[in-house]
Amino acid sequence: MMITKKIGNRSYHFNATGTDLHELLTEHEKLSFPDVPACGLCGSVNLRLTSRVAQDKFKYCDIKCDDCFGSVTFGRRQDDDKVYFLRKKEGGTPGQLDWVKYEPNITVAPTATTTKAKR
Q: CB under 8 Å to 22, separation ≥6 — which residues?
């Protein structure tokens, strides 16, 4: 069974397999997140799915906006780490995704050391 998820202006196709209808539907439900029509911050449809590994052990999947660079991260169920969902905003409206504004790491260049002149 092919599952299509629409993320912004892109479509992503996933194949689910099973030996019977029950297994097939169980695999389908592991992709339990809805289609995401636009960025929750700027409204852009230029979205893409990404994956990354942090500290050589933590695996993340995100939807990133190519315009404002905001993102929303997928969560995993603790009892079944093969089931993914999109994180919802705490205290937000029902179904509101937890979009995070991009904030680059700002590094401040060291300032030149000044010495006081002796009088």
A: none
Contact 29, 41 (CB under 8 A): no
Instruction: Give this prediction's pTM.
Output: 0.74
Cα dist from 75 to 30, 52, 82, 95, 98, whole Å: 12, 13, 10, 14, 11
CA–CA dist 105, 47 (Å, integer): 22
Residue with tokens 């937000």: 92
Instruction: Encode pLDDT of 52-88 as tens digits.
Output: 888 888 788 899 999 999 999 887 777 777 777 788 8
3-class SS of residue 43? coil
Q: What tokens were used for 74?
A: 């997928």
Q: Give pLDDT tens digits for 101-117.
A: 998 875 555 555 444 44
